[in-house]
């Protein structure tokens, strides 16, 4: 029983996340979600969700362009853009993001560096429990 409680508690709480996108960087607070099971269909890496307002800090107008599924020439995806299907209570939709080789996660005194796909969630609204990022517990 004690081990079970300890394992459940490990997938809850908050962490600080930082990563780079080109020459820009992002650092923010993330809600750890053991229910976030999204995976990139190409690399099978976990998907980190970020609300659009936070993504504008490092990607600017690309949030309303390529990370909204609007392609410049109208044909195909822009190079480096990942399309991740997401199924939820409100139906199925496609999230767009990018592969990030180094996502730095700090929780308490522990710090890890992982690879993940960062996807812009335009439907996140106010965020995830007061945070701008939803972090899968599998990255910890």
Strand content: over 45%
Strand order of the largest sheet: 1-2-7-3-6-5
3D shape: globular
What is the CA-CA span between the terminal residues? Answer: 22 Å
What would you say this structure looks like, in words?
The protein has 140 residues and is mainly beta. The chain has helices spanning 2-10, 52-59, and strands at residues 14-21, 24-33, 47-51, 81-88, 91-107, 110-121, 133-136. Helices cover 12% and strands 46% of the residues. A six-stranded mixed β-barrel has the order 1-2-7-3-6-5. The chain has two helices and seven strands.
Descriptive labels:
140 residues, mainly beta, six-stranded mixed β-barrel
Task: Provide a concise account of the structure shown.
The chain is mainly beta. The chain contains two helices and seven strands; from the N terminus they run H-E-E-E-H-E-E-E-E.
Spell out the blueprint of helices and strands.
Layout (H helix, E strand, L loop, with lengths): L1 H9 L3 E8 L2 E10 L13 E5 H8 L21 E8 L2 E17 L2 E12 L11 E4 L4
Parallel strand pairs: 2-7, 3-6
Antiparallel strand pairs: 1-2, 1-5, 3-7, 4-5, 5-6
